[in-house]
Amino acid sequence: MKVIIDLDGTITANPDFFRLLIHLLSKNGVEVHILTARKPSRNKETNKEFEMLGLLALDDNPITAHSMSEHSSDWKKQMQWKIDEAIKIKPDIWIDNDFKMWDRIYQVDVKKALPKTTIIQI
Description:
It is built from 6 helices and 5 strands; from the N terminus they run E-H-H-E-H-E-H-E-H-H-E. By secondary structure, it is of the alpha/beta class. It starts with a strand and ends with a strand.
């Protein structure tokens, strides 16, 4: 099983809950992928956050962090990057805080791109 969880506005909105969830998923053999559209120049800050959340050293099944290699402040480009990454990962579940905004502003229905993925809006 594969799960994608967004970082900003999702994990950062409730870090205690997501720390527990990610540890439980990982300990039970679930591949956990964290997506962030943060600038690469923020990698040090992101790694410190992961360390604070206890997400850097999951020995049994480490998480995989995905960040935009060429950051754009354009939300539509960020959205497209996330969708493209998700298509590559082929998750069973994707948890994010942006799905409703993408639908409302850009008329993008993630379910069309990933019909077998359970989408959870936070």
